[in-house]
Amino acid sequence: MSFVFIRKRSKNYIVYLEYKDKDTGKKIQKNMGAFDKKREASKKLTELKDTIFKDDFLVPNEMTLEAFLIDFLEKYKINLSITTYNCYNRICKKYIIPMLGDYKIEELKPIHIQNYVDDLVGILSPQTIKIHINILNLAFKKAYRLRLVRENVVNCIELPRVKKFKNNIYNTANMIKLLNVSKGTPLELPIFLASGLGLRISEILGLTWNNIDFNESTITVEKISVRNEGKVILKEPKTETSERTITAPSEIILLLKDYKKSQLEKKIKGEIKNKVNLLFFDKNEQPIAQDVLSKKFSRFLKENNLEHIRFHDLRHSHVTLLINSKVPIRIISERVGHSNINTTLNIYSHALKEMDIEASDKISETLFKLG
């Protein structure tokens, strides 16, 4: 079994052939030619693929896309979060398998996938269609590595343009107004945690009392709330960087102390048990689903004549306020649990652009208006 790929070295595009030595079993990479232009390397790559295909693909493959997808998802499940796996599984069962599942995977052509995409335009959002194609891309990458198909047919697909999502945010005045209106309501603490710490809604609902260190004034994020097959459970965050310990403002720590005191009083009276030690729980003392809190927040804004934003937009508002306060991007990125600084830079480019303009104005004022 062998395959070919292109790797850029300095100014050249080099085509490599990788195969296993029959005697030693070791992987060997062989240089099949260096090219100045990528299109020339791609042409050589296609030629080699055809040769390999003829040599390796000797037995006709009768596997349908439905059979392959079911097997692929089950084996790939370990790499996905519960929510992502359930999402992928739902998309396969509802859309991909009914529309493409009967095709043999070796018979699928780019036109079949393109027609599938075109049929969904206007029915599903471009962002959702992109998820469909991501599933197929992952599956066909594996099929190609296993020499079940000649090429990854998904590579040729043209996707509908995804409009760049613009976050709705509260400015400082609106944030202060929201915090004041929320005081004394059941949403006070969740709103303070999102606005004052930039926590995601799933992180807030995953907090247990052992995550709160009153002596050090820190909050540790190590669990999130997710819905799995109709039941809300707690699980580890999706990425390692999401697991973090952050320092909390004294106002939030004081609010947490009062909230814990209130829970302890209810425990003593026998009104609650809270065996899971959650900060927030439903009437059955189970974790709360994210959409439940989102809907409550939406109703709260409407009842109090406040500008509508999503609960998650409190996180965006928090980060924008930090950027405007000149907090270093690296610190912001770590506090909100982004995988890297580039994620922060990409999401909040609007705020950084405003800072860039401000920096230009300051240089102009300092250097060029002295006389």
Could you explain how this protein is built, in words?
This protein is α+β, with helices and mostly antiparallel strands and 371 residues long. The protein folds into three domains: 2-56, no CATH class; 65-156, DNA polymerase, domain 1; 172-356, Intergrase catalytic core (hpI Integrase, Chain A, Orthogonal Bundle), CATH 1.10.443.10. Helices cover 50% and strands 12% of the residues. It is built from 14 helices and eight strands. The strands form three sheets. A three-stranded antiparallel sheet has the order 1-2-3, with helices on one face. It has a three-stranded antiparallel sheet with strand order 4-5-8, with no helix packed on it. A two-stranded antiparallel sheet has the order 6-7. Strand 6 and strand 7 (231-235) form a beta hairpin.
Comma- or semicolon-separated keywords:
single chain, 371 residues, alpha+beta, DNA polymerase, domain 1, hpI Integrase, Chain A, 3 domains, three-stranded antiparallel sheet, 8 strands
Name the CATH architecture of the largest domain: Orthogonal Bundle
CATH topology of the largest domain: hpI Integrase, Chain A
CATH superfamily of the largest domain: Intergrase catalytic core
Query: In angstroms, what is the radius of gyration?
Result: 27 Å
The level of helicity is: 40-55%
